[in-house]
Automatic annotation (TrEMBL):
GO biological process terms, semicolon-separated: L-amino acid transport
Keywords: Amino-acid transport, ATP-binding, Nucleotide-binding, Transport
Family, similarity comment: Belongs to the ABC transporter superfamily.
Source superkingdom: Bacteria
Cross-referenced Pfam families: ABC_tran
Lineage of origin: Bacteria, Bacillati, Bacillota, Clostridia, Eubacteriales
Organism: Proteiniborus ethanoligenes
GO molecular function, one term: ATP hydrolysis activity
Annotated ranges, domain ABC transporter: 2-234
Record-linked PANTHER family: HIGH-AFFINITY BRANCHED-CHAIN AMINO ACID TRANSPORT ATP-BINDING PROTEIN LIVF (PTHR43820)
SUPFAM superfamilies: P-loop containing nucleoside triphosphate hydrolases
Listed name of the protein: Branched-chain amino acid transport system ATP-binding protein
Length: 234
């Protein structure tokens, strides 16, 4: 479905992504894990057209999306839920969800999707008129994911959905991610919480200093001594 081939990204002199190769098949949950500053967010930004590549290629179903702008990438079926959620805090829950549907013209279908989002996140339904900025951290994350789903993505990019949340809420969010995947959306999940991410994913890539250090079956990686030492303990 999506492929990154020898992707290089620079911020000035900083070489943030070094010959990155990543492949995501339709229907998978793939996780990209790594420490702070490893290049995880940059990878998602490159895919969603926010960050330009220095070289390399990103293809969606075999077609290059290198020169496609961010709004058109949403139209092609890729939705990016950024780190830190970035909800519109002075807008209501409902208005935030409406913003997620900005590329769509099928208004009656959009209405149906509100219902789908609310059945996935009943807490958002209870709070649909509430200002988004007054939601709890977990609810804001749910709203950010809900907003991301409003464009009906085939591929959902999630940047650290567990950040700053209590363990019980993290569990809830991860179980919803699995539900979203079961309903047919492919997921690329960026996480520092390697344990939760490997448990939720089919396959995983570990990124270190902008390079893929390791890749493979997620459950096998959970048992790997090197992975345990570097990413699962402490
Ligand atoms: P974190 O988990 O801390 O968010 P990350 O793995 O997502 O980390 P990135 O945000 O992709 O890491 O950053 C990769 C590298 O690029 C880091 O060294 C970071 O300092 C640098 N970087 C990121 N954004 C910029 C920017 N806008 N300008 C300059 N350098 C940047």
């Amino acid at each position: 479905m999506l492929e990154l081939k020898e992707v290089n990204v620079f911020y000035g002199v900083i070489h943030a992504l070094k010959n990155l190769n990543i492949k995501i098949e339709e229907g998978e949950v793939v996780t990209l894990i790594g420490a702070n500053g490893a290049g995880k967010s940059t990878t998602l930004k490159a895919i969603s057209g926010i960050q330009k590549l220095k070289s390399g290629e990103i293809t969606l179903n075999g077609e290059s999306i290198n020169n496609v702008g961010a709004p058109d990438i949403v139209k092609l079926g890729i939705s990016h839920v950024p780190e830190g959620r970035r909800i519109f805090s002075r807008m209501s829950v409902m208005e935030n969800l409406e913003m997620g549907a900005f590329t769509r013209t099928d208004k009656s279908e959009v209405k149906k999707d509100f219902e789908k989002i609310f059945s996935l996140f009943p807490r958002l339904l209870e709070r649909k008129e509430q200002m988004a900025g007054t939601l709890s951290g977990g609810e804001q994350q749910m709203l950010a994911i809900g907003r991301g789903l409003m464009s009906r993505p085939k591929l959902l990019l999630l940047d650290e959905p567990s950040m700053g949340l209590a363990p019980i809420i993290v569990k809830e969010i991860f179980s919803i991610i699995k539900e979203i995947n079961k309903a047919g959306t492919t997921v690329l999940l960026v996480e520092q919480n390697a344990y939760m991410a490997l448990n939720a994913a089919d396959r995983a890539y570990i990124i270190r200093n902008g390079e893929i250090e390791m890749q493979g079956d997620a459950k096998t990686m959970l048992q790997d001594e090197k992975v345990k030492k570097a990413y699962l303990e402490g």
